[in-house]
């Protein structure tokens, strides 16, 4: 056993496997008067919805976009009080953001969110599916009111439903996006935050437990009426693997949306891994030893250390950079722009599995 292995217990290895997770989904419901959008963008601003924008990667991205003055960010969150405090600390100007309530574990909440956004009359330019539930040390699964495991529902099915419902809004945004001089604005974008830990063609993706959707046996069982099936492949619950599996679903969904909709809509579909955010609120309830060692491990061993601010700048670049508008791309950072696009694992790029996942997901969220 090496010195590193002596201070790197198995539970810490599990935490390492979800070190790039993005943002929690909060549990506080807003008062009625906070249901509506709280500010209007200027005529020059474009609108970007970011799920899970109250902390971590989502908040850092909102800050990076807002400071340009060119974007109005709709922060889709569950805890308004916490988000307002975070926004104030980040220094966002009042006309640069709005708050909207969204619970990705609830299909009703997702549909209400879409209805409220449409009632505002706003044009949508970009949707960023960022929020995630991560339960790496959980011994037992947690379920939503429909009996679906929270990682599956929030990270995959919730975003799957939201993305499908908001395709019409992105298409309308494209139709309305001609500027006063007749020049078209950049194509609308739908971005899903993926994960290197779900890609088994990487070192990080081979840290146990590895992502493996099997033949989607768990989702098939749920589609046939079963409840409280904890894993997508029908296996025993493992919180770290549940997160990784959901990220594979995210990346499969991105590829399938590109194949189904890009040519007919002009929307650019992509996913990205913004780097390992080594110091984040993700670890606040976990091992103190891990919280101390992991940033050092990333800085001095893997050289993969990324701050929340830098990760937010990277996601903001995928939102706004004209050079990163390729549909079907998976962006994963290296040192120069020429190497941003990277290759997904065999499973995360399996078009047959993506089509099967799509069919099952449609059934599970009532799109059929």
UniProtKB/TrEMBL annotation:
CDD domains xrefs: LPOR_like_SDR_c_like (cd09810)
InterPro entries given in the database record: NAD(P)-bd_dom_sf, Prochl_reduct, SDR_fam
SUPFAM superfamilies recorded: NAD(P)-binding Rossmann-fold domains
Keywords (A to Z) from UniProt: Chlorophyll biosynthesis, Chloroplast, NADP, Oxidoreductase, Photosynthesis, Plastid, Transit peptide
One Gene Ontology biological process: photosynthesis
Reaction catalysed by this enzyme: chlorophyllide a + NADP(+) = protochlorophyllide a + NADPH + H(+)
A Gene Ontology cellular-component term: chloroplast
This protein's pathway: Porphyrin-containing compound metabolism; chlorophyll biosynthesis
The keyword Chloroplast belongs to this UniProt entry's keyword annotation: yes
Subcellular location: Plastid, Chloroplast
One Gene Ontology term of the molecular function aspect: protochlorophyllide reductase activity
Function according to Swiss-Prot or TrEMBL: Phototransformation of protochlorophyllide (Pchlide) to chlorophyllide (Chlide).
Family, as annotated: Belongs to the short-chain dehydrogenases/reductases (SDR) family. POR subfamily.
Protein name: NADPH-protochlorophyllide oxidoreductase
